[in-house]
Amino acid sequence: MPLYEYRCKDCGEVVEFRSSMAAKEEMAASLNCESCGSGNFTQVYSGFAVTQDPKTSSSTPPPMGGCPGGMCNLQ
Question: By C-alpha distance, which of 11, 15, 31, 14 is closest to 23?
Answer without folding.
Answer: 31
